[in-house]
Amino acid sequence: MKKQNVLIVGGGLAGICIAIQCIDAGHSVTLIDKGVNRSSAVAAGMINPLVFRRMTKSWRVDEFIPYSENFYRDLELRTGASFFHPIVIRRCIASEQEAGYWKDRANDPLFSAYIQAFDKEDAEIHPEQRPFGSARVNHSSYVSAEHFMAACRTFIEKNGTYIRAAFEFDQFEPSACTYLGQRFDQAIFCEGSEAVKNPYFGKLPVEATKGEILTVQAQSLPQHESLNRKCFCLPVEPNTFRIGATYVWHTDNVIPTQEGKEMLLDNLRFLTDEKVEIIDHRAGVRPTSPDRRPIMGTHPTYPKVHIFNGLGAKGYMMAPLLAQELLESIVDGKTLDRELRLDRFF
């Protein structure tokens, strides 16, 4: 395989994962990032194998979960940082119908790796708040986003070139793949919700989806598992929890709102009666797509120009493997999953 000189634009989750895959494959990496992260560093980094609303498995979860676990654990060893945290998700069941769905799934071999069978403990935890019991999800985890991003940026600086600057499109020539007079073999744009400003991929339907998240202190919430109903409640430090997240479509500002805070606190009441203390309130903008599939592939006119975007709320689960698949499609000519390819929009 010919070693490539790769230009990556954007230092969020997508850009970092594709940069690390390039470095591990022996390619030369230059990553340009202006240092304004609107999504990846704000996210709670939850990795949940299930879609609770429809009680289904997440798309391609049987591939994504083991790959992402290995990816993050290996990066921890190589960077000396700690950011990957396995944690059980406890779903607080909302109705008899939902309880029936869980019992059916627990007996289904396709779900057995992710759903623990009901036991006495599940039924007896706060029965006054959870009359239908609760259920536990295995192979769930979270990535401490800020620690992950910081460790990976240092790793890329040591093994490639990391430039903190805005990308100047008028200095980029797509046919020859040159930027500021330097020639590259490939250019990969990983700009998140700002892809709408990209002159080569701006017509693709990368949508801005705003999400708000609270950090609170509480005494009664569990420290060893993440509760879920209407919202998630993730323990991140002793007596400190992330509560999230809201979804506001077609909104690209990162200003926390009173409405978002009140919605999260209202949803938290399904998990606890305790009055919590808010110590932080943040907002970010997820890059999503209309069909909830990532947007990735090669420009139809410029074969050296590519995009990796639209990872959405499941980004920390999907990004490591999809970065590898994109790199293999660019360098080795492997065909991308048909649900990912850009021609679905043409």
Which characteristics define this entry?
D-Amino Acid Oxidase, Chain A, domain 2, 346 residues, FAD/NAD(P)-binding domain, eight-stranded mixed β-sheet
3D architecture notes:
The protein has helices at residues 13-24, 61-79, 96-106, 120-124, 145-159, 258-268, 315-331, and strands at 5-9, 28-33, 46-47, 50-51, 56-57, 84-86, 88-92, 134-137, 141-143, 161-164, 172-173, 178-179, 182-183, 186-189, 207-217, 225-229, 231-237, 240-244, 248-249, 277-288, 295-298, 305-309. The strands form 5 sheets. Strands 7, 8, 15, 16, 17, 18, 19 and 20 form an 8-stranded mixed sheet that branches. The protein has a 6-stranded mixed sheet with strand order 10-2-1-14-22-21, covered by helices on one side. Strands 3-9-6 form a 3-stranded antiparallel sheet. The protein is built from 7 helices and 22 strands. The two termini are 31 Å apart. Helix 1 packs parallel to helix 5 (145-159).
Helix and strand topology:
Blueprint: E1 5-9, H1 13-24, E2 28-33, E3 46-47, E4 50-51, E5 56-57, H2 61-79, E6 84-86, E7 88-92, H3 96-106, H4 120-124, E8 134-137, E9 141-143, H5 145-159, E10 161-164, E11 172-173, E12 178-179, E13 182-183, E14 186-189, E15 207-217, E16 225-229, E17 231-237, E18 240-244, E19 248-249, H6 258-268, E20 277-288, E21 295-298, E22 305-309, H7 315-331
Parallel strand pairs: 1-2, 1-14, 2-10, 7-16, 14-22
Antiparallel strand pairs: 3-9, 4-5, 6-9, 7-8, 11-12, 12-13, 15-18, 15-19, 15-20, 16-17, 17-18, 21-22
Helix pairs in contact: 1-5, 1-7, 2-7
